[in-house]
Write a structure and sequence with these properties.
The chain is α/β, with parallel strands linked by helices and 264 residues long. It has twelve helices and nine strands. It is globular and about 55 Å long.
Length: 264
């Protein structure tokens, strides 16, 4: 929650929520499918690691979907990042909506739908229902709290195009095959935008104009201070992508470094 508040203080236009799902069917804001990297779950629930082999990385893994919201709220999800954030608790999707609504846009990512489908869980339907329950799909709401849905999963983007036609949707990719002429035309039939990884755009800068011609917005990720790049600062890097390559938006860890220019 501290990070979301800081993003808005730093004038982020949208705040991103990576969505996972608890055992009792609550959408939570969590980047990973598992809890061990960003919490003390291994200490609080040492024997509750998953016996499934769906996580390819080595070591023990505690899948968020194996825990109820009440259990996950027992975990410290701040201390791993810095002692300053010790005691931070998980943020639910509803918490994020309530915090951000009317102050900035929401940019939720539907993560790992295949994981939930393999467990007989319809994550997309729960998400669609939550958006409608909060009225966030209504045109009047979108004017004050814009929403953009993102996913690497093509089936998910195709589905929300049908279930939430008023809400823009962006297809995430790190694949060069997704920026060919034919593929861009195909994506434009169900997506509002494409969000290639930075390297894909750098390797195919002409894709920006081709995507725009097809009616797609172009966003790229992730711009972060301290990362070794060809640019002196993250502000310079974002400027290059926005004003030289011509993309429309960026995902960044540093909204205070965004090189905003007046419209027109």
């Amino acid at each position: 929650m501290t990070a979301y508040r800081l993003a808005m203080v730093q004038d982020a236009d949208y705040v991103e929520q990576d969505l996972a799902m608890t055992k009792d069917g609550v959408l939570i804001c969590l980047h990973d499918d598992t809890l061990e990297r960003t919490s003390n779950v291994a200490t609080v629930f040492p024997a509750r690691f998953s016996k499934e082999s769906i996580i390819r990385a080595p070591g023990k893994h505690w899948i968020a979907n194996d825990f109820t919201l009440e259990e996950i709220r027992r975990l410290d999800v701040g201390r791993w990042f810095s002692g300053k954030f010790m005691g931070e608790r998980i943020v639910t999707w509803q918490d994020a909506i309530d915090l951000v609504r009317g102050k900035a846009g929401l940019y939720p990512e539907l993560k790992s739908p295949a994981l939930y489908a393999s467990r007989g869980v319809d994550m997309e339907q729960l998400f669609v229902d939550s958006l409608k329950k909060n009225g966030l799909d209504r045109p009047e709401s979108l004017k004050t709290t814009p929403v953009i849905i993102q996913s690497f999963d093509e089936a998910s983007i195709r589905r929300v195009a049908v279930d939430l036609p008023t809400v823009p949707r962006v297809f995430l990719t790190s694949e060069e095959s997704d920026v060919t002429e034919d593929r861009i035309r195909e994506l434009a039939t169900f997506a509002s935008g494409i969000a290639p990884e930075k390297g894909v755009i750098e390797g195919h800068p002409d894709m920006v104009a081709r995507a725009h011609k097809a009616g797609l917005t172009v966003t790229s990720w992730t711009f972060r201070a301290g990362e070794k790049t060809a640019f002196p600062t993250v502000r310079d890097e974002m400027s290059h992508f926005l004003y030289e390559l011509g993309i429309d938006a960026v995902f960044t860890n540093n909204p205070d470094q965004f090189p905003r220019r007046p419209p027109g």
